[in-house]
Amino acid sequence: MQITVIGTGYVGLVGGACLAEIGHQVTCVDKDAKKVQTLLDGGLPIYEPGLDEVVPKNVEVGRLHFTTDLQSAVRSAEAVYIAVGTPPGADGGADLTAVEAVAAGIADAIERYTVVIVKSTVPVGTCDRVRDIIASRTETDFDVVSNPEFLREGVAVPDFLDPDRIVIGVPSDRAREVLERINAPLLEKGAALFVMDVRSSELTKYASNSMLATRISFMNEIAKLCDRVGADVEHVRAGMGSDSRIGPAFLRAGVGYGGSCFPKDVQALLRTAGSAGVELQVLDAVERANELQKHYLVDRIITELGPSLEGKRIALWGLSFKPDTDDMRQAPSLTIVERLVQAGATVMVTDPVSEHTAAGELDTSATFMADPYAAVEGADALLLVTEWSQYQDPDWARVASLMRGERVYDGRNLYTPDEVMAAGLQYAGVGRGR
Q: In which band, very low, low, confident or very high, does the pLDDT at 365 lie, cut at 50, 70 and 90?
């Protein structure tokens, strides 16, 4: 099929490349001429494992194209995906400015029946809004479909190519048939297809992400209790996760969640509920607990090394909100570094891929080091924030010889305490009872 994807961020570029990978003719559109030129030149504007293989492969065989010309790309398409950003607005709700602008552009371009597929994460009722915008500007027949993405940054390519489920909210059988044609290669591989009304589909994405955020915040609360009563949250997690009614996923305690999805989607769902006159008390607590969690280990560092950190040197391993991505949006590291700097510390940070994305977000007082061992040289404490594989099995004897102090703060419970302490270092995790 001839498909156009509008937006070349994490969702749009992965989606467009993977649609080409399963055999469609895909044109990706972005108004950012610099980003499009990067793609035309063979580069990638984002870091996502697997894209460096899928994108050039499909460009070479002629299935994947990039342009800034929305009108011509939409005019030639049978289906058009909206995959632009919906960042949080001033009130916490999703900012739909880009979605609405794209809807108007689509309306001005379509000349035949077209299925408009909203891939962006949007509040309930947004597809109705997109439909109204398009209908107000054209008499051409069309349908607007909700098809939320469930891609995890770091594994987005395999998530798209081998999904556990595909959710579509459709207003007509004609639109459903188009979505089934698009996803036929994935359905043949065993992906489950859930067909529902449009509003239920929109809400499914927010409810899914909010449930995952809830599990994380719940375990972080349990971790705090473990530290107070001398229990180990890793044992608690294993015992809980073995219950088939609960399962092990998203039960790891740490320094809080971040990224482009969970914080934004929790806020947007709270805003949607508030507008509907519904108070989501559990979800409100999830958000508050997560913000507090970002300060948890910083508070401990200040207690143990402070109250002033003047003259103290803190090494921080990991900046991105999770491993295998360069995404710094709402990353806990931003709050952590800001707090440490405000307390007077000299902060040395390192991350395998996030230096360029962190540059515009990170406190300028922090110093980036390419080598994690160089970052710990002369440090009074080491704080792990992102559990990159590069940090998984460090040479603790070398770390101990380089550091001035002895404290290791494990913000992701990545390390075995006994191994750290065997090198003469002191270990503190999140909920490890130490």
A: confident
Indicate whether 76 belongs to any domain: yes
261 is a catalytic site residue: yes
pLDDT at 272: 92
222, β-bridge pairs: none
Decide if 95 is inside a domain: yes
C-beta of residue 65 within 8 angstroms of C-beta of residue 28: yes
User: Which helix (H) or strand (E) element contains residue 115?
Assistant: strand 114-118
The range of the structural domain enclosing residue 122 comes to 2-196
Amino acid present at 430: V
pLDDT of 399-415, one tens digit each?
Answer: 999 999 999 999 999 99
| Residue 232 or residue 364, greater confidence | 232
Query: Which CATH number belongs to the domain containing residue 60 in this structure?
Result: 3.40.50.720
Asked whether the beta carbons of 317 and 384 are under 8 A apart, the reply is yes
* Residue 253 in domain: no
Question: Does any domain span residue 51?
Answer: yes
Query: Is the C-alpha dihedral spanning 197, 199, 202, 208 positive or negative?
Result: negative
DSSP 141: -
Measured in degrees and rounded to the nearest 5, phi and psi for residue 258 equal -150, -155
What is the reported pTM? Answer: 0.91
Mode of pairing for the β-strands spanning 381-384 and 407-410: parallel
Helix (H), strand (E) at residue 51:
helix 51-60
**pLDDT tens digit sequence for 226-240:** 999 999 999 999 999
DSSP alpha helix (H) spans, 276-411: 281-293, 296-305, 332-342, 355-358, 372-376, 396-402
User: What letter does residue 152 receive in the DSSP assignment?
Assistant: P
Distances (CA, A) of 284 to 266, 327, 348: 8, 25, 34
Catalytic residue, candidates 18, 28, 127, 261: 261
171-218: pLDDT as tens digits: 999 999 999 999 999 999 999 999 999 999 999 999 999 999 999 999
Q: What is the mean pLDDT of the chain?
A: 95
By the 8 A CB rule, do 204 and 167 touch?
Answer: yes
Specify the number of domains making up the chain.
1
Instruction: With beta carbons less than 8 A apart as the criterion, state whether 408 and 415 touch.
Output: yes
Query: Which of the four pLDDT bands, split at 50, 70 and 90, describes residue 134?
Result: very high
